[in-house]
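Handout, page 2. Input:
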Amino acid sequence: MASQTHSVITFATNKFSYLQFALNCAQSILLHNDIPIYIVSNLEAKIPEIFKEKVFIIRAKPGHAELGIGIKLHIDEYLKTAHTLFIDSDCLCYGSLEDIFKACLNMDVGVAGNIVPAWQWCGKDQATTVKKVWGLDNLIRYNGGLYYLRQSETTTRIFNTAREIGEKYDDYGFSRIKNKWINEEGPISIAMMIEGEKPLADDGSFMTDLYTDMRPKIINVLQGERVLRNKPTSHANYRPWYPALYSPVIIHFGGSQFKSYPYRSQTALLKLKNKGIPTAFAVIIVNITLHIPYRLYHWLRSAINSGRQ
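Output:
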């Protein structure tokens, strides 16, 4: 998809490791898409030569980098095209983004989620506040690793409302990430509900994390292969709104997964590609050095634990 009207944006502020994650994300996107990618950052860094024609740095506005994750309440202030996907830097892309753009065709702000009773997502105490302050019984439950934004007055209103909520975040009783950062999902969900925005139905096909499948058996960012498994219905990590098997375009690994072997295996594949290693050989190398050892370790660990029971 080559277009002057569509683009991707992500954030990488304060730490160079975040910039590397953003470049990993950008490379994975460019494997499957011909689209400009904008990285918002306050870091002085040069884009590697192989990405220069498609990846661009946008300087973070004053005061935004200090917000940490809360900078996501300002996505709308960095839009460069009429249609934009925000993708978290801790994500990797496994296919064309075209279906996501098409699914968001009639939206101003889009997320992959489901409308649920507020208490199911944020708990009864927070739901009481949401009802009292905004008159909402339901909220959009979603993962903030993916947003669609159209340049429009409605999009601006949604983010203005979300920022206003963010200014009184603690007063409203919202919990902070690691007792430090504002989580943008609650304020944006409320703002979207106020404007009557509906989510993309979350069936695991657009973007998801590894909650139901921490170690996917089929995952290859170079070849676009990914099959995730839902847990059995009796398992605590079972998601009833997902099918038994699903293949998301985007996998949101999350900060806690950067050292896990699934993320390490995928970034190893990207590095080998950058070195000119043919895909078939890169897959063999990663299977030998990462997949087989880690899977053997987890199999042995499971067998030992089972034997103790």
